[in-house]
Amino acid sequence: MLIRRAERFKASDITDEQLYLNRREFLAAGAALALTACDVAEGAAPSVTGAPLKAERIDALSVKDTPTKFESATTYNNFYEFGVNKDDPAREAHRLKTRPWSVKVDGLVHKPKTYDVDELIRAFPLEERVYVLRCVEAWSMVIPWIGFPLGALLKHVEPTGQAKFVEFTTLLDPAQFPGQKPGFFGGGLDWPYVEGLRLDEALHPLTLLTVGMYGQVLPNQNGAPIRIVVPWKYGFKSAKSIVRIRLVSEQPKTAWEKAASHEYGFYSNVNPNVSHPRWSQATERRIGEFRRRPTLMFNGYADQVGSLYTGMDLKKYY
Amino acid sequence: MSRRGRLLLKVVVWAICLAPLGALAWWTGRALWLNTDDLGANPISFITNHLGDWTFRLLLASLAMTPLRIVFGWGWPALLRRLLGLFAFTYAVLHFSVWILVDHFFNWGQMAEDIVKRPYITVGMLALLTLIPLALTSTTGMIKRLGARRWTRLHRLVYLTGVLAALHFVWLAKVGRTDQYIYVAVLVLLLGVRVVDGARRLARRAGKIPHPRPATPP
What we know:
The complex is a heterodimer of chains A (318) and B (218).
Chain A: H1 17-29, H2 31-40, E1 56-57, H3 70-75, H4 88-92, E2 102-107, E3 113-116, H5 117-123, E4 127-134, E5 139-149, H6 150-157, E6 165-170, E7 194-198, H7 199-202, E8 208-213, E9 216-217, E10 227-229, E11 242-248, H8 255-259, E12 283-286, E13 293-294, H9 302-305
Parallel strand pairs in A: 1-4, 2-11, 5-12
Antiparallel strand pairs in A: 2-3, 4-5, 5-8, 6-7, 6-11, 8-9, 8-10, 12-13
Chain B: H1 3-33, H2 43-72, H3 77-103, H4 108-117, H5 119-136, H6 140-146, H7 148-155, H8 157-172, H9 179-208
Helix pairs in contact in B: 1-2, 1-3, 2-3, 2-8, 2-9, 3-5, 4-5, 5-8, 6-7, 8-9
């Protein structure tokens, strides 16, 4: 198997100056909001959509590529809970109420717990990481996410020896997610949206429990208030608006597998050599660019995650 | 219909057929020079889909003309059939050109692989191919040269075009999408009218055809 050497993660890579400046602008623009938030609940993390969110930039885990325009990243979304069109999520996002919000972490763990989302944001140091998001539809974006490693949370609840997989469940509420209403032709997914990772994938340092992007609180259309980001897998593997994280012994049956298992496998690692029935995965269009670019093995993260799949037939486990 | 009426009808239909192209030019111009977001975050995908949608709409419009005559007995739809068909062909060629020239930028290897491996692209290509002989024989001169009978038989190929276009749309649509079935329903209706009409005519002819005359004594 060809594993490309990703040259993206040299710690010496210098942060793009323009991005750095932009980040300051974001912070400055939201300063007033931040002050208000502090007045209301001192020390509490800001919870208002668009409010700035401070995080330490982790250059060692960030790509150097120029981030996608914020406007593109927030208006071109696949989030079927809001509707099947790319512009539905931005239009319907206001229906989702992200506070109060709790995330239940249970299953095969010694210390199951239900966390308030703000409690999580306070408990774990936030990091900013610039990842490439590769959609199974052969387009990609570069997004500065803010969050903390999922592994840190999992360590807190202490998975038992039987735990082999992690299952993520998205909120089920057709009043807030119009896409969950039964359609005229039926269709749609079997709600709620369920995704899953193998435990070692979930514990991988790249797997980010995400609460913000572009220096601010995660917009609703991007999976607020809390989502997962798994940068070496196709975007749909990264469940949004999560209400439950469950440790299980059996491989979870994911929403897209249930809908079309021949098209969307459990692993769904980005792989230019294994095409989807409808899309060749050899190339991708980076949003904002004209020419297609070649897709990299594991989305360019082969050095970091390739060893998770040693000896596996990735054509069979697509 | 008077000459002026016919002219007016054609002008209106030309305008309708050109409007989607005009809109596309307007949005593209604004996106390029004013940096607007009219084409969305993925302009190439938007343009391809826009041209594909209008190809299918105009194809259905051209297929709707004969049923209008059959059901309502109107004469004017016959005037528009060729015009709509040629516009459908134009949009199909543009849709295909964007795929080659802009989306894949002459990456022949990947395109060849796509045509062979992706059934929705295979049938889309076939749909375009079936339109080429129809466009080439659309002139009045060609109709005369072929003769009405042969020309009519050849142009039944457009029914296949419709079916292939429908498959193209259904197969490329993701799970959860439903708009493709609206197009399929319209196509089924338009072809269904022809089937029913054809069956009725056959029945009528069978009833009216006189039996071989008995030899009459002189």
